[in-house]
Amino acid sequence: MFYKANIDKSNNIREYEETFIKLIPKISLLGQIDLNENQINNISEIMKDKIKILNTNPSYLKRKAPITTALFLLYTGIKDYQEGNFWGPVYKELELEEDNTRLHEKLGEVFYYTLEKYNLIKLDPGRNKYVNQILAHALIVNNYLQEYFEEFLYKECGDFLDFSFTIEDVEKRIVNIRKDHKGHKNLCEDISTLKNKTKNLRAKINDYQLALENHQQLIKINKLIKNRNNITEIDQLLELPSDFLEQKTNNLAAVEGEISNYKAKIMEIESIKKKSNELLKLQKEEQRKIKNLKNKKEKIQAKIREESSGIFDQESI
User: Fold this and answer.
1) How far apart are CA 59 and CA 63, in angstroms?
2) b/e 10-22 (16+ beta carbons within 10 angstroms → b)
3) CA distances, 20 to each of 24, 263, 284, 297 (Å)
4) pLDDT tens digits for 211-268?
């Protein structure tokens, strides 16, 4: 559905913007806003003046009039787009040189910003992010209208356009449409059922593939189960409490703690023994010194007795 913009000629870009904002909630494509030739020409004149502001204020159009800018690009494309040349007619409308890549990047950004801000349809941009979006919202550009009617509309809808509109023919047509709709609905249900069956089959196939991948392991496990009855050690292990290893680990830790204490005591005893040996060595050394002193004493005493005896012998003479 298309919506007319109820605004007379105005030189105020904000008036256009406010008018278009009111229409935005009703549309999905900017091409649904229907502008007449006078409105298009008036917007083009305003844009010639406002485009100069971008040199000093690059975000002016994005902030003040994004929808108006987008519609200027849109209707310029509708009027003049042909054979891949989009920006040439835009520069011509603005009376600017065509070789201005930075400018069409800025204008393209404003168009894309408008789509995002007002949650309008964004299509797959392909290799040309901005131009393809603008042309998609333009619906059909003027230079390709004849091609559209000849190559698409008449081929797809020609039988309907040539259809007789008598009451009987219309009734038959409606009956056929209903049958087609019912058949389409049944077909959709069948497709949904088949999709579910396919999903279930894929799940089963995955289970089978997993079983096949683990087939050799399953054979080994089955052999172990069969041979388990002949292995008493396994039965004994299975009878052990679930925390057996944990208990043994704790006991081992306790034993290791005791061993560590014993090692410390042994080291202490070794130290005492070493000191004891040193004391014994000192004792032996002292005993040796005492013995030497005792020998010296005895020698001195013997000498004293000897000398005393000589003195007594001289006195008696």
Assistant:
1) 6
2) eeebeebbebbee
3) 6, 92, 119, 135
4) 777 777 877 877 777 766 556 666 666 677 777 778 878 788 888 888 888 888 888 8
What are the tens digits of pLDDT across the range 256-302?
Answer: 888 888 888 888 888 888 888 888 888 888 888 888 888 888 888 87
Amino acid at 51: I
Map tokens 């130290």 to a residue.
271
Three-state SS sequence of the chain: CCEECCCCCCCCHHHHHHHHHHHHHHCCCHHHEECCHHHHHHHHHHHHHHHHHHHCCCCHHHHHCHHHHHHHHHHHHHHHCECCECHHHHHHHHCCCCCCHHHHHHHHHHHHHHHHHCCCCCCCCCCCHHHHHHHHHHCCCHHHHHHHHHHHHHHHHHHHHCCCCCHHHHHHHHHHHHHHHHHHHHHHHHHHHHHHHHHHHHHHHHHHHHHHHCHHHHHHHHHHHHHHHHCHHHHHHHHCCCCHHHHHHHHHHHHHHHHHHHHHHHHHHHHHHHHHHHHHHHHHHHHHHHHHHHHHHHHHHHHHHHHHHHHHHHHHC
**68: its two tokens:** 């108006």
In sequence order, the β-bridge partners of residue 82 are 85
CB-based burial of residue 23 (10 Å sphere; 0-12 exposed, 13-18 middle, 19+ buried)? middle
